[in-house]
Design a protein that fits this description.
Mean pLDDT: 88
Strand order of the largest sheet: 7-6-3-4-5-2-1-15-14-10-11
Number of strands: 15
CATH architecture of the largest domain: Sandwich
Order of helices and strands: HEEHEEHEEEEEEEEEEHE
CATH topology of the largest domain: Immunoglobulin-like
Largest sheet: 11 strands, mixed
Distance between the termini: 82 Å
Number of domains: 2
Length: 308
């Protein structure tokens, strides 16, 4: 009886220490999202959209309705300011279909089926140039947002090659050799496509920097991101390239602000839903209260035929 009384006393004591905790969750506040880029020999392209409440619909209609029309945008190269015009994928000027397909990541034969609008310029004088800094200015609903990005000098792809995986003869990874510049920040983006495709695909963790490779010449490999979408590709070889594949690889450099945004964005995307993942704040280079990124890229390209 003494033991039972002691247990009851402990339980009552623990229960008396319980305190109800109320957490105030901030309400949803809509923000503007700017997704803009300019790369060597290409014009600037900017998407404007609104953030969505976490409880809002996630269907295609809601996605398309999130884009913003009627804004006033311009890009300056430090000497001249170029106004951007709004164009939509279902009313593209002739000859711009491939470019739009690459930007939106939609097959060129399907691009006209969607009403996706972006802001760009057809003035050849605003095509991206290495070494230039570009200032983006966005005016919408009485608010002004600005950002700057630089197209940094690219890095050469000394060699690209295909190497069979261990114990394989027909499946392997793509490899490349680069020499990193010493004593400076370098951020990289790796993309790839089959030679007959219009848009590039990104592999898992496509952004990397030179934190551990500063000033070194090194080889690195990447998997085949397209294989995961191919129903005819054998499951046990997903991620590999097949013997005889012809690829176009694209290695781009960017400034540190762009890299920090993109690396953390992809970290968040790949950890979504993981309750043990470290919360990630994605830094933006947009001033004025908007979210997003204005990014400059300097790519190098190479064609790789997958043979030993």
């Amino acid at each position: 009886m003494k033991n039972i009384a002691y247990v009851l006393f402990v339980l009552m004591l623990l229960n008396s220490c319980t305190k109800e905790v109320k957490i105030e969750i901030p309400g949803y506040a809509e923000s503007i999202v700017i997704d803009g880029r300019i790369e060597t020999n290409f014009p600037p392209v900017v998407l404007l959209s609104r953030t969505n409440d976490i409880y809002s619909p996630t269907n295609l209609e809601a996605y398309l309705n999130g884009f913003i029309s009627g804004a006033v945008l311009s890009v300056s190269d430090g000497t001249t300011t170029f106004p951007l015009v709004e164009i939509c994928t279902d009313a593209l000027p002739a000859g711009t279909e491939n470019f739009a397909a690459q930007f939106f990541g939609i097959p060129v034969e399907e691009i006209a089926n969607y009403h996706l609008c972006a802001y760009t310029s057809f003035d050849p004088a605003i095509l991206g140039q290495v070494g230039k800094t570009y200032t983006l200015n966005v005016n919408y609903a009485g608010e002004t947002y600005t950002s700057q990005t630089t197209i940094v000098p690219p890095i050469d792809l000394f060699d690209t090659y295909w190497k069979p995986a261990k114990n394989q003869t027909e499946y392997g990874y793509s490899w490349a050799t680069i020499s990193d510049n010493a004593n400076q920040f370098d951020g990289y983006l790796w993309e790839v496509k089959y030679s007959d495709e219009s848009s590039y695909s990104k592999p898992f963790s496509p952004f990397f920097d030179d934190q551990f490779i500063d000033g070194l010449t090194f080889d690195f490999a990447y998997e085949n991101p397209m294989s995961y979408q191919e129903s005819s590709f054998p499951d046990e070889f997903k991620g590999f390239y097949k013997l005889g594949d012809t690829l176009v690889v694209k290695l781009s450099k960017m400034d540190e602000a762009v890299y920090q945004f993109m690396e953390k964005k992809y970290t968040q995307l790949f950890s979504a839903g993981n309750p043990f993942a470290t919360p990630t704040n994605i830094p933006s280079n947009i001033k004025g209260g908007a979210l997003g990124i204005w990014a400059g890229y300097s790519p190098r390209f190479d064609t790789l035929i997958c043979i030993p």
